[in-house]
Amino acid sequence: MSTLEAQQNARFAALDPLLPPIAPPPAANEPLVVSTGGRKAGGLLTHVVHAPGSWPALWGPLEIHDLTPVPGDSGAAGLAALLDAWRERLRGTPAGPDSGCTVTWPSRDAEASAVLLAHGFAPLTCLAVRPPAPPEDAGPARVAVRRAGDGDVEALTGLRLAEWHYTSMVGTAVRRPGARALFHAEVVRSLRFSGLVWLAEADGVPAGLAACALASPAPGDSIHGRLPPGRWGYVDTLSVAPEARGGGVGRALMAAAHGELLRPGVRGTFLFYHPANPLSPVFWHRQGYRPLWTMWIRRPAWS
């Protein structure tokens, strides 16, 4: 382990006890090293281009430049120096409107938040965690929750599309052609492979869904280096039909989901939500979730 990594791990441990040690980076990353105030700061740069019509293209810019900072003990000054050097590295690089620069950093680091805001970044997505907790109120009796099956594919697809349309206004989603077919395929995949999909009905009418899974951090996935090792419950999507919001549908779905996800040996549950969404942060905080990591974005990318 390098000195910078050891310093960074010590800072993370002081910031938040749930932050895991730094994960080994993919070999394809490009290093970035700067000095500020006599201290070294490092980082890893990644450039990804998603194909139009692909699943990732529904959730953000087609072209993403990402920085994984490792400022060590240089603190906010080191992060600022890394962002300045990154901007210079990208100077002259073509960047269209469908592009962005991203940084993911611990949510509790207020000093880093100030630096990112000063460099034109905005908080876009939070990875939030919830420890195992006692059973919750299942919501009003008029809301019935059951495990979804193959006969519910069209209803589930419609609910997921409605959530995605809303997220395109307040989160990461980007409206693109062909979305319905991608969501239909994703619903079928969720039913067949995780099986942890619930449908809520109010007076017999589909009112919401919860699509979940069980996951363990592993190299190459989105939670590697983000969560401590072990088994976690993942809340992929919670969608409540617009006309059913405020009626306890979300609470009923999460009572069922948490009851199934929190099996013996599961460390807790996690999900991603958007801070700018006027509905989800309040709901998830009441459900016992709190931010662990925040993904920041600058759109379009520096050029």
Automatic annotation (TrEMBL):
The keyword Transferase applies. Transmembrane segments: none annotated. GO terms for molecular function: acyltransferase activity, transferring groups other than amino-acyl groups. InterPro entries: Acyl_CoA_acyltransferase (IPR016181), Bact_Acetyltransf (IPR050832), GNAT_dom (IPR000182). The keyword Ribosomal protein does not apply. Pfam families: Acetyltransf_1 (PF00583). Residues 143-303 form the N-acetyltransferase domain. It comes from the Bacteria. Keywords: Acyltransferase, Transferase. PANTHER family: ACETYLTRANSFERASE, AMINOALKYLPHOSPHONATE N-ACETYLTRANSFERASE-RELATED-RELATED. This is GNAT family N-acetyltransferase. It comes from Amycolatopsis iheyensis.
